[in-house]
Amino acid sequence: MTARPSRLKHSAFEALDREDPLRRFRERFDLPEGVIYLDGNSLGAMPRQAAQRVNQAVTYEWGRGLVRSWNQHGWVDLPQRLGEKIGRLIGARPGETLVADSTSVNLFKLLAMALRLRPDRRVILSESANFPTDLYIAEGLVDLLGGRHELKLAAAEAMEDAINEEVAVVMLSHINYRTGRMYDLPRLTARAHAAGALMLWDLAHSAGAVPLDLAAAGADLAVGCGYKYLNGGPGAPAFLYIAQRLHDRVSTPLSGWFGHARPFDFVPHYAPAQGIARALAGTPPILSMAALEVGVDLMLEAPMAQIRAKSLRQSELFAALIEQELEGCGFEVVSPREAAQRGSQACIRHAQAWPIMQALIGHGVIGDFRAPDILRFGFTPLYLGYRELWDAVAVLKEIMITGAWKQPQFQARVKVT
Ligand SMILES: *Cc1c(COP(=O)(O)O)cnc(C)c1O
Question: How far apart, in whole angstroms, are the C-alpha atoms of residue 111 and residue 172?
Answer without folding.
Answer: 11
